[in-house]
Design a protein that fits this description.
Radius of gyration: 20 Å
Bound molecules: glutamic acid
CATH topology of one domain: Rossmann fold
CATH class of one domain: Alpha Beta
Order of helices and strands: HHHEEEEHEHEHHEHEEHEHEEHEHHHH
Strand order of the largest sheet: 10-9-8-7-11-12-13
Structural class: alpha/beta
Oligomer: single chain
Helix content: 40-55%
Strand content: 15-25%
Number of helices: 15
Number of strands: 13
Length: 419
Amino acid sequence: MSAMKRRYSASDVALAQFERAIAHMDLDEDLVAYLETPKRELIVHFPVYMDDGRMKMFTGYRVHHSTVRGPTKGGIRYHPDVNLDEVRALAMWMTWKNALMNLPYGGAKGGVAVDPNQLSRNELRRLTRRFANDISLLISPEGDIPAPDVGTNPQVMAWIMDTYSVAHGYTTPAVVTGKPLSIGGSLGRAEATGIGVTITATAMMKKLDMKPEDTRVAVQGFGNVGSVAAHKMWEHGCKIVAVSDVNGGVYNANGLDIPGLLAHVAETGTVIDFPGSDRIDNRETLTAPCDVLIPAALEGQIDERVAPDIRARLIAEGANGPCTMEGERILLDKGVRFVPDILCNAGGVTVSYFEWVQGLQSFFWAEGEVLERLTRLMAEAFEHVWRASQDKNIDMRTAAYTIAIQRVVDAVEARGIYP
Ligand code: GLU
């Protein structure tokens, strides 16, 4: 493990962001302690038979940060570096994201420390079913609703839904979102996060008087978020000059042919070796000459070592927690603007909410209706955060946090503390 990974704590970042925001609010310190503390944290160790007949132990997590505004909602991540500190941070970020979007949810996150690319499909299915079983004391359509995150996808959600349904004796679509369409998924869900990134990034570009045709974009990560965001920004008229995935990056100062790149990735599984591009590495993607940078990979990517070399004027955070506090401070001091993660990538959970509502009612919407509602909610949330940042003269993340935290506080005060 690299030195960076050892000293980086996602929870420290989440708490520092929270503390920076509450400095602009008038909150009782007991209430602050309550908001900083996760409600419950489950760690499960479980065995899975591998295809070679050996049994292997895995560790998984499900953390509920807050249940005050409703059932908890948040994804499940499969990645070798998943740990309690990270899942705890991601759960807290979900609380603020859901509150900022005014979704009737608290915040949760889950994960398993595993590299899904090292497993066969059958191993992945057995691991998912066993993990779903072992966290089933927490998940339910009324209590806690998982969704995809890094390393998971609609198929994994289908297995979780099936495992839960078999145990209960009836099909329960609303226990997860991000499902395949064939079992009650929502139209528009797969693209929703990337679309939301584009809605909020382009709204910010408008405020900063950045014309799409003069805007160069770099995207770190080419998964479900980065690939859709790159495509939508390209459709919007921007030039996508740099893109990377886990294998490395590609660069073309005149703009990459994004439909061609998507076809190349579909065929080869990676962006590298895309004809007509130069090979760059991960760091060079972040520091590429561009106007908008979209980090759409993992947290902690933009730290004090890379931030001084970043040339973008605007960072649109497709990932959760892509900036460390030090990295962000350097960029803010340089005058770089942000669309913070809890706003920028909230399109995914927003359409998850639509999927959950459709599932509970067994009444499904047309794609246009999903996208129209998504666009409206994202645009409204963006304007709200922008206005708060202008009115109080605070950065966009702090503005987003103050709105979100106040909504959670209002719910705590309305409900009161038991007993
Ligand atoms: N994993 C996504 C996120 O970080 C989506 C969560 C959800 O849809 O519940 O927001």
